[in-house]
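Researcher: Sequence of Carbohydrate sulfotransferase follows. Predict its structure.
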Amino acid sequence: RRLRAGETWLSRFNQTERRAMLGSYTKVLFVRDPFHRLITTFLQGMGINPSFSSFVQEVLDSGMHNGSAAWKPLVSLCRPCLVQYDYVVKFGFLRQELGHLLRRAGLPVGSLLPELTDSQVQWTYRWLSEQMFSELSAQQRKQLSHFYRWDLAAFPFSSSFLSD
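Model: Prediction complete. Tokens:
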């Protein structure tokens, strides 16, 4: 990626400088089951393949370093070991967690919080996951679990189809 004028990558600073820069901010990380991220990317047409299985193979073949940010493992994008996040908000619990964040910031929750139907979203993704997961070979399932192993270890995706 190309940096804009005045922009510097956080990783270019030493640990003391990073701590000083980030210390005054409330750091929030939004996470999502990696398998759900794959499904969404596929459904949005970001993959050039006609089947989900072919798309997954494209993801696996691209590897960790050549892949799109849409499907790269979260730990490679957000560096949870580098940045100490104050909140980690899991997709599927947005309504309750966003309400808490707005209250903490001293903002009126009712007027700013969108209508979210987390239970419907969770049910839909569960159904989609079952359908899409059934299209994958045992080898692809194993490779995906390995590809996202650090995300699955770092974040609470206990109901993920990729969890062991």
